[in-house]
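Forum > Structural Biology > Help requests

Title: Can anyone predict the 3D structure of Serine hydrolase domain-containing protein?

Hi all, first post here. I have the sequence for Serine hydrolase domain-containing protein but no way to get a structure on my laptop. I'd be grateful if someone could post the structure tokens.
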Amino acid sequence: MPFATDLERKLAAGIESGLLRHLHAVLVGQHGRIVLERYDRGPDEAWGAPLGEIDFGPDTLHDLRSVTKSIVGLLYGIALDRGLVPPPEAPLFAQFPDYPDLAGDPARAGIRVEHALSMTLGLEWDEFTRPYTDPANSEIAMENAPDRYRFILERPITGAPGARWTYSGGAVALMGALIARGSGRKIEEFAREALFKPLGIADFTWSAGRDGIASAASGLRLTARDLMKIGALLLDGGLWQGNRVVSEDWIEQSFRPRIETGDGWHYGRLWFLDEAPIGGVAHRWIGGLGNGGQRLWLQPETGIAAVIFSGSYNVPDSWVTPMRVWREIVLANFSG
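Reply #1:
Sure, ran it for you. Structure tokens for Serine hydrolase domain-containing protein below:
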């Protein structure tokens, strides 16, 4: 395929020139067909634990980091379709009656499930200005807290719910708790039955904290091909090989802009949203983004999906390489 060969050549040139660094895997597909698949070798880690030098391949599990958040959003939609979790308009704190002092706080009564899904809780959370190596980073502090859910729910109020976007792994941890409570299963067990098994995903791990609770914010590990399956599911409106896995309405609602992130992008229900051109025409894209350069990029109107795994964990400019791959290698070489 000349087109695929051209993509491969340009990606290889970027890597060899040093412009594209620390890449572990790159997959590109359109309308369900893989047009580029490349794996490399490099140092890796699993949720912060060093793994040494890894020869990556189709069967290699890789940290998704915060792409996990977007997968949890998809799982919430599946649970909602089954009537297992409260709808987005439901009061959030009422779902946690085991914290009566917080559930009964009038100042928190206006916070809805939707505000967790869009990261607009109006509660203090600092996950952007501090690296994940800093114990004061709110996600790390949550993992180290005696009770992760109380830690999240009792954060000081900083503004009205829905008014301002604040990146929060805590918001997603609450969604994971609602899925687990509603389904009666750990989130990894629900994911296996409700999402992974229908897609033929057999191999995955989900890192858990010291309390044994899987991290809904960052703990999932999948292969690049299996993450691409999830991308194909989303691009096909929730269908996999003709079978309904999640409602099309949930996907549409998840991909609808809810709030500006402050850097020109928008946020839906646990997905980043923006536009990028193909052939001079702007098309929206949807992204699941994770620490170190992990990406699931989707462009629904053109049927394009890309998975990127990288090893630039906790590096401030880790966003540069995956963005260049997406814009300069993928989108720049498609005609739509």
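The CA atoms of residues 115 and 316 lie 28 Å apart. The chain has a mean pLDDT of 96.
Shout if anything looks off.
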